[in-house]
Amino acid sequence: MSYSTLMLQVYKSFDYNASNFLTVKRNTYYNLVRFCCMDLDEYQKKTRETAIYPSENAIEYLTLGLNDESGEVAGAFKKYIRGDYDEDELRERISGEAGDVLWYWSRLLDEMDLTASDVMEKNADKLFDRKDRGVIQGDGDNR
Prior knowledge:
The protein has helices at 3-13, 26-46, 58-82, 87-111, 116-133; strands at residues 14-16, 22-24.
């Protein structure tokens, strides 16, 4: 789907409900996710060029790396709270660490024959289903 076709579909999908709040139809949201994910799927393919790790332990290696880099995001925020640096420095550090999280996430999905767009679409389906059933708040996977 081209960008102009997608934007036309988005424009046509806007409705005003009784409260005059702008709402977007669910299928348009999915098309937006698909359009955005083309870049993520391409990024995922490009990460193959920088993937240097033992193939026999790829899943374990990538899972630990993803956890490690996620911890570095949390560590940067912890240091911000402690006063080690200002909000601009926090933003810079989060940006760098989030890129590392994205790389490990992308590699893990690729090694498991999953695409970013498929994972995101499945997650959106789950969240909209929970919203429709009024159980988006709370905890547990099976709500």
